[in-house]
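Table 4 source record.
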Amino acid sequence: MSVYKLVCPHCHGKMRIRTSDGVHIFLRVAYLQCVHEGCGWACRAQFEMTHELSPSGMPNPAIDLPLAPKALRLEARRRPTTDHQMDLTGLE
């Protein structure tokens, strides 16, 4: 199972997902909160599936996600697979 590494942009402490809602099959809205008691910052975030990197072995005909451009697919292959955490710091 993968774990998102969520870091508070204010205090650089850990953040947790308090709750989330599925808006669409490709979009999930999450409500985050910093776990550092002195900070307590909270925000809303969106996690969206944007491109297909490799086709499914059991495709659903109702799913229509664009194939990622070649450069994006190559970049995804070069990323190390030993770290299963996504660092969301610096994303805007």
